[in-house]
Amino acid sequence: MNKKTTIKDIAKKANVSIATVSRVLRRTDYPVSQDVKKRVFDAADELEYKPNLFSRMLRGDVSIEIGIIVPSINNPFYAAQVAASEEECLARNFIPIICNSNSNPGLESWYLEMLEERQAAGILLTTIQNEETFVKRIERLTMPALLVDQGIENYTGDRVLFNFFKAGYMAAEYLIECGHKDLALASGPITRHNRREILRGFKQALLDYDIVFNKRRIVNYDSNYDIYNIGDDQGAIQIIDKMFEEEYLPEGIVAINDSLAIKMINELHNRGIHVPNDISIVGMDDIFVSKMVTPRLTTIHEPAEEMGKRSAKYLIDKIEGKSRNIVNITMQPTLVERNSVRKVHSKIRR
Fold first, then answer.
1. Which residues form the HTH lacI-type domain (predicted)?
2. CB-based contacts of 345: which residues, under 8 Å, 6+ apart?
3. Taking CA atoms, which of 21, 50, 133, 269 is between 20 and 30 Å from 212?
4. Which residues pair with 301 in a beta bridge?
C-alpha cells in the first residue's frame, strides 16, 4: 500500500520548509513569493497530495465551504448543474453546501445570510430575484459570489449565464419554419429575468417573420404550482384550461421548460389532443427525460453540466487568488430536434 503524501514530502521536493508548505497550502496572508508558491503547488500536484478536509475545517483554517443556491433541486436541470458544481468543488478540496430555495425569495435571502454567518469561502447563486436592492445585497457579500444561469439586471459582478433571449427566439423560429404561425408561450409568471428574456426572444422571432403578436397567447400558470414536482400537474392543467377558453388552440407552443412541456403533452393527450399530429410543442433545457418520453421532446439545449462545472471552477480560482478578472460568460443554446413538432411543409428541415 502506497504511503500517503504529507506536507513533509512536499517540503522536501520543493526545497522549502514545512512551515512554508503549510502557509502556502492553507493560503494564509503570510508573505510568500510567487516562485515559492508555484514550487509548492507543483510539488503537491506531482505527489498527488490530498489534504484532510475535515481536519482543516476543525482547525479553523480558511473556509473550505462553498454555498450552492438553486431555485429547485427537484428540477432535473438544476440537479445536473449542482452535481457538476459539487464534483468540481470536491476535486478542488472544497465542501459544497447545497441550498434549495424552493423558488422562495425570502428563503434565498436567508441562505445568503446563513452562508455569510458561516464565513463560507464563496457562493454560487442561481437567483430568482431581480430587484435593485438585491443587487446591492449581493455586492455587499463578504466573500466571492458568482451568478449562475439566471442573471440580474444591472449586475456587473462575476457570472456564468445563458442566452435566454436567443433560446426563446430559436424555439419560436423553429416552429415558424416548420409551418406554424399561431404560436403560444406557456410559462409561469413573467417575473424572472430568464422568463422575460425568453418572451423577448419569442416576440422578436414573430416580428422578424411578420407574424402579429397576440398577447392572449402568452399563457401563465400560478406561481404556487411546482411544475418540477412529479406529482403536481396543476400548472400544466391550468395552462391547458386557459388555452381551451379560446376559440382555437395554438398551432405550436413554446414551453418555458421541459418539465412543463412534458406535463402539457400528457394533459393534451388526456383531452384527445395529440402531439405532434394536432399541436406542436418545443421545450427548453433538454433534461435527460426529454428523450425518454413519447413523443420524444424537441427542445432547446442548455448545457447544465458544463455551466455547473465552469462556474465552480471560476469561483474557486477567485477564492484561491488565481484570477482577478471579472468573469462574464454567456453560454449559447442549441436546437435538439426530436418528435414533438409536426413539419407542415415537407420541404422544411427534412
1. 5-60
2. 178, 179
3. 269
4. 285, 334
**AA identity, residue 43:** A
Q: Where are the alpha helices (DSSP H) in 34-150?
A: 34-46, 53-59, 76-91, 105-117, 132-139
Match 468540481 to its residue by C-alpha cell. Answer: 88
Distance CA 296, CA 299 (A): 9
- The rounded average pLDDT for each run of 10 residues, N- to C-terminus, in the chain (350 residues) is 73 87 71 85 83 54 86 92 95 92 92 92 93 86 93 90 98 97 95 93 98 95 74 89 94 96 96 96 96 97 97 93 90 98 64
Which residue segments constitute the domains of the chain, with CATH numbers given?
Answer: 5-56 (1.10.260.40), 63-161+302-331 (3.40.50.2300), 162-301 (3.40.50.2300)
Give the residue among 286, 270, 269 at the shortest CA–CA distance from 278. Answer: 269
Task: Record the cell numbers describing residue 285, joined without a space.
Answer: 433545457
Q: What type of residue sits at position 342?
A: R
For residues 298 and 283, the answer to whether their CB atoms sit within 8 Å is yes
First to last CA, the chain: 59
> Do residues 188 and 227 make contact, with C-beta atoms less than 8 angstroms apart?
yes
Q: At what angle do helices 34-46 and 7-14 cross, to 10 degrees?
A: 120
Q: Give whole-number Cα distances, 306 to 208, 292, 303, in Å.
A: 31, 22, 5
Q: What are phi and psi of 257, to 5 degrees?
A: -160, 170
What is the DSSP secondary structure assignment for residue 327, as one 8-state letter? P
- 342 three-class SS: coil
Radius of gyration (C-alpha) of the chain in whole angstroms: 24
Backbone torsions φ then ψ of 120, nearest 5 degrees: -60, 155
Question: Which grid coordinates are listed for 258?
Answer: 421541459
